Amino acid sequence: MNIVEQIGLRALRMFDPETAHGLSIKALNAGLGPKSGPVTSSRLSCSIAGLQLPNPIGLAAGYDKNAEALTALGKTGFGFLEVGAATPLAQDGNPRPRLYRLTEDQAAINRFGFNNQGMDQIATRLAQRPNGRIVGLNLGANKTSEDRAADFARVLRHCGPHVDFATVNVSSPNTEKLRDLQGKDALAALLGGVMDANDAGIPVFLKIAPDLTDAEIEDVADVVATSGVAAVVATNTTLSRDGLTSKHHNEAGGLSGQPVFEKSTRVLAKLSTLTDVPLIGVGGVGSAEQAYAKIRAGASAVQLYTALVFGGISLPAQIAQGLDELLVRDGFASVSDAVGTGREEWL
User: How far apart are CA 167 and CA 124, in angstroms?
Assistant: First the structure.
């Protein structure tokens, strides 16, 4: 991280977290971010669900909710981007304050509630996105919807032609009863409707929670085996508050960042023993070593978001470079060669 980025991060921390989030988007769009593009090499280049990635380090959904910074983000070190979540209708989400920075824990708690400008505006921006980058969309459901399962299909049908993949997000803890859709029968029905709406024929991913029991993880694997899901994103934020020290630790919402790393990686490793579908590891990735650990636990790629709050937008390039060095150190010719080689440590 250079001195300019250090100063920028210190300045952003003077604002409340949600204001700082918005300012960071504006700064990127003003040209204040990296311009070198994704880090790549013969080892880092990889494929997931038929998508060719320059490196396996992705931006998780939630940062660029409305697809407003695609050009700027395309110049960063990320190998792929996921924006959203998008819902059929625009919605304000939950009342503020709804985002908390837990500096002592290198974490965040949010209860946004799928605040976004709606699929029409987001689709317009996605249709104008720059070429040459892999971009996906996180699909959500409106809080007031009478048929939330149908909302996912509606957004996919509308936005699918403009993205490379879509992620069904039934794991946010901030929309009441949304996680109920992770139950075996409900999930199978939801995914069936989504697949029927996939007119663009893009890969559809499923994002799950880290708070599932072993039996629930097995149910997810069973549904994935028959649904046509191309990858599973493991995991979203947690409701657990174990071990936190920051003053905001009891705020309602989903916890992300360093405290989620172990919990999410164990879910990832468990799931990797139950399915051959590629997995994307999310939760507490803030260093090359942690990205590498997720990959060795069974992930074909990883995503991060909260770590940007503490490490800046140069972090993905640093992680990709460090991952390349770790692969060389351990004699792996490619990311795919390392996938699952350390799984037993997490089971």
Answer: 19
Cα gap 307→286, rounded to integer Å? 5
Q: Which value, in Å, is the radius of gyration of the alpha carbons in the chain?
A: 18
**Whole-angstrom distance, CA of residue 10 vs CA of residue 15:** 10
Does residue 36 surpass a pLDDT of 70? yes
Tokens 């037993």 map to which residue? 344
Q: Which amino acid does the sequence have at 227?
A: S
Measured CA to CA, the distance from residue 206 to residue 204 in angstroms comes to: 7
Q: Any idea which residues carry the catalytic annotation? A: 172
Stated pTM of the model: 0.97
Classify strands 80-86 and 57-59 as parallel, antiparallel or unpaired.
parallel
CA distance 80 to 60: 9
Which residues lie closer than 8 Å to 181 by C-beta, 6 or more apart?
148, 149, 170, 187, 190
Distant-in-sequence, close-in-space partners of 75: CB < 8 Å, separation ≥ 6 = 33, 34, 35, 36, 37
For the chain, the average pLDDT equals 95
